[in-house]
């Protein structure tokens, strides 16, 4: 084997919408097993950065490497199959499917079994068990057979996570997984994240500083599309620039 | 008896129950045999219904399950119809092989068309499907040396089914043949929609944006179902040719493409039998109304369509199913 490659690496990513520069020269590395937070004020370009990394948008310049292999031009689907998965800030679910169906769908896609039209769904027994196990882990077992659209918002957020976990990611990008979720529930959600296998690299966007400081081993601060600072939580906490542009405004800490 | 504490639904059991044959389904297939004994005068209408229902089911697979709105599916119906007619005119009147070849030919065209279909969405998609249909229609119209143009193909000869069942004047053999094909088509479609592939089609319909994010090659799925659907529509067209001994240009018409969508919406999309029920209602209504009032019968279809869309957004069968579920 080669020397240990970072699970994810971006090199000088740039993206503009017209004259608005939303991503400026973003370079960072996410090592295996990382628990990194990506923070920054509203409109800083956090979601756009994730869109670039996962291939939903193409960067104007720069490179993206997954496990040392370049994926800058690869379609989203191919990146997911190489272990790069994200969740969405705004629920992007299947309203009419039940959670068990949605997660089973993700697992069948991962196992390349989704194209088998001659084999009955019920015969995928191992996959069904795995789906139910994931839903149980996210405390969704009781609503596993209810249409997604009828679930309360908080449970839909959990399902958003469940779908991502079903792809068995090596790199997991979470875009405000707990957005709009009551504080006690969001703590439960982050304890699931904390309990993920140690070799999964996680990058999460989160506005709640208590959560950021208790779950992140390292923090990337994004301001106006550029990386202002990347450092340990203690350093970020004490940095005057961060206080000014971000923490000061929000009023936490 | 002790009262059990409510337990979590067993996911295996829940999924199995969704794909099981229901009593209504079995009752439907038993009832489908009635025209043989009770309404012999309606046998020709019954086989028209069975053929059109197969066509409607093929549209349901792409429109109802995968959410691909098409206004051009008559293209495949017509291609199947003409292929079957031409094969027979070329001297091979054996119905089963003719049916299969016609279906495969329509499927081949469907596969080629699917490369464009999966790259467009919304209004553009509808227009592309419509465009394909118009194109094929005019092509068939102008190639009258092959297709007979506006006169259509006459005197198509079809040999007895399996060498035994001669196509009779009453239409016993024709209905038996069409019904068997519809049954087979439904069994196959059932298999498809209750597979993992069927689940991914519903995923595409529900939220195509999420599909790549869970690693899905959804365009591949769409191409596959579009091709399967084209084969099925082509078979329906071939059945029409073989049971009526003629092929006319209107097998390829926009009207046919639109009618089948109306039938599907009437019955309810995404439930297979909705396509069948919608076809029965549409065709029986047409038969009855056009006797009374030949010029204006679309008025009533229009009215029915609006009532259903406004009051029963899931279609007639969908609403009935919902009522039944509320009961228990
Ligand atoms: N598709 C787009 N076209 C044009 N401008 C866009 C597009 N997507 C995002 N933007 C703009 O880019 C900037 C960054 O948006 P982005 O959603 O990445 O911010 P964010 O950091 O995720 O914010 P939030 O914390 O509110 O989620 C914003 O000014 C936004 O209006
Ligand atoms: Mg955002």
TrEMBL record, chain A:
GO cellular component terms, A-Z: plasma membrane
Segments forming domain ABC transporter: 8-249
Keyword entries, A-Z: ATP-binding, Nucleotide-binding, Transport
Pfam families attached to this UniProt entry: ABC_tran
GO MF entries: ATP binding; ATP hydrolysis activity
PROSITE patterns: ABC_TRANSPORTER_2 (PS50893)
Name of the protein described by the UniProt record: Branched-chain amino acid transport system ATP-binding protein
Automatic annotation (TrEMBL), chain B:
Chief location: membrane
InterPro entries: ABC_transp_permease, LivM-like
Transmembrane segments: 20-39, 51-76, 96-118, 123-140, 169-188, 260-285, 297-317
Matches recorded under Pfam families: BPD_transp_2
Location in the cell: Cell membrane
Keyword hit for Ribonucleoprotein: no
Topology relative to the membrane: Multi-pass membrane protein
Gene Ontology cellular component annotations, sorted alphabetically: plasma membrane
GO molecular function: branched-chain amino acid transmembrane transporter activity
UniProtKB keywords: Cell membrane, Membrane, Transmembrane, Transmembrane helix
Name this protein carries in UniProt: Branched-chain amino acid transport system permease protein
